[in-house]
Structure formats: C-alpha cells, structure tokens
Design brief:
By secondary structure, the protein is of the alpha/beta class. The chain contains nine helices and nine strands. It is globular.
Length: 251
C-alpha cells in the first residue's frame, strides 16, 4: 500500500493517534513514511497540527498539510469563514502522489468523517481516495453507536468501489463494557472488513519512545504489527448473562 487513506467514523475517535501508530509500526518495519493532513482545522498558523502530533509520537516521518484553517469546523465552512481558498480533492491526491514517489508509505489523514466537505462543491476525502485509487482505513470508536457509523462508512466506500482495508478501534477502554466487547465481533460483520487493531485508551499520552515500542502490538500484520484479533477475542454472555459466562477481553 504506497498510499493509505485514514478516515474516522466521526470526530474524536482517535484518528490522529491511530495514524501515528500505523506510522510508528511502518517505521519499525524499516519503511519510509510520509503523513499528509488533507485539511487541518482549529489551529493557528504557528500552532502544531495533527501531522506534527503524528511526527511527535511516531518519529522520523515526513509531514505535510494541504491547507489549514483557524476555526475547528468542517474544512469547507472553516475556509469560507476565514476567507481562504478551500482544499480540493485533486490537491490532496496530487500531494499524496508526489510524496509516494519518495516514500514507501504515505498516510493521508482526513478531517472528521469520510464525507466531511472540503469545498462548497461537495468534494470530500472519499473523492481524493478515488483519485488515488487508494485503500481506506476506518478508525472507529469502541462503544455503543459505533456499529451504525461504521456500517454507514463501509457502505459508502463500497458504493464508490473503494477498498476498505479494515477497521481500527481508536481507543479501547481499560474496563470495556458489554457493548464494547460485543463490538469486537460485530464490527467486522457490519463493515465487511477485518478488525486490524485496537489502541488502548490514552495511548497518545504515552512518552514517544514508549508509544513507538508499543505501537506494533496494537496493529495487525497487514499494518506492520503483531496484534491478533482472535487472541484479543471476546466471548458473548447469554441473555441475562450469568457470572460464569461474563464476557472476557484479551490483552
């Protein structure tokens, strides 16, 4: 995968930290990595953005942005309010393609979900992925409600004939509830794609050296990691679950 597009099922699902983990695992495997933020919102020109955070956590990546806007809004809205030119899908695709000539792996991180608008004409990250013919990795939340948003995202990708590389849980809780544990089995079913990892809650607060050492253990081999979905595994309790049949999560 010379280019991998990374999107979330919504905001605050752990997309940037997941991008950093994918970058760290690829670097550990000896690959050169670039991280491209399609549209950075909510930061001033002198503030670090998501690509900077990926570099801080993952290490020696090439970082780039196509555009940034000061207000924490959808890119099209943020551009309009700032009086700036919006980012266009072809600009994202061209920037990623250029980086791909110089790196083994280019990670293109979107803003929010797959269909968040870049411009007033309705351009999105999905359009950029189409131009790149790149697979898409979906970062999802762990708990109640994630099945709906994940399935909607997967359906949209299939409608566009885009490859869904898999799903990564962006923040796996220390004490997962019933819904989260059941979702480990249900997410691959509703998405039609494999579960490719689960990042522990608070992973982004680790010291960079600790993050880099641990990242391969959070991701499946397809993402240069060692994580095993079956070993992580769940057992479903019967209705009214007895104490003996409680769900048990893996490591």
């Amino acid at each position: 995968m010379p280019v991998l597009v990374i999107t979330g099922t919504g905001t605050e699902v752990g997309k940037t930290v997941a991008t950093a983990a994918v970058a760290a695992a690829a670097l550990a495997a000896g690959r050169t990595v670039a991280v491209l933020k399609a549209a950075q919102t909510g930061v001033r020109p002198d503030e670090p953005g998501d690509a900077d955070e990926v570099a801080r956590l993952a290490g020696a990546v090439t970082k780039a942005e196509v555009a940034r806007y000061p207000e924490p809004l959808a890119p099209a809205t943020a551009a309009r309010r700032a009086g700036l030119e919006p980012v266009r899908p072809h600009q994202v695709a061209e920037a990623a393609a250029k980086l791909a000539t110089e790196h083994d792996l280019v990670l293109v991180e979107g803003a929010g979900g797959l269909l968040v608008r870049f411009d007033h004409e309705g351009g999105t990250l999905a359009h950029a992925a189409e131009l790149l013919r790149a697979p898409v990795l979906v970062v999802a939340s762990a708990g109640l409600g994630t099945l709906n948003t994940t399935e909607l995202t997967a359906r949209e990708l299939r409608c566009r004939k885009l490859e869904l590389a898999g799903v990564v849980i962006g923040s796996w809780p220390d004490s997962p509830d019933l819904a989260s544990r059941c979702n480990l089995a249900d997410l691959p079913e509703v998405s039609g794609a494999p579960l490719l990892g689960a990042l522990p809650a608070g992973a982004g607060r680790l010291a960079p050296a600790d993050f880099r050492a641990a990242a391969p253990g959070w991701l499946a081999p397809r993402l240069d990691g060692t994580w095993d979905a079956e070993a992580f595994g769940v057992r479903e309790a019967p209705p009214g679950g007895s104490q003996e049949a409680q769900l048990s999560a893996g490591p």
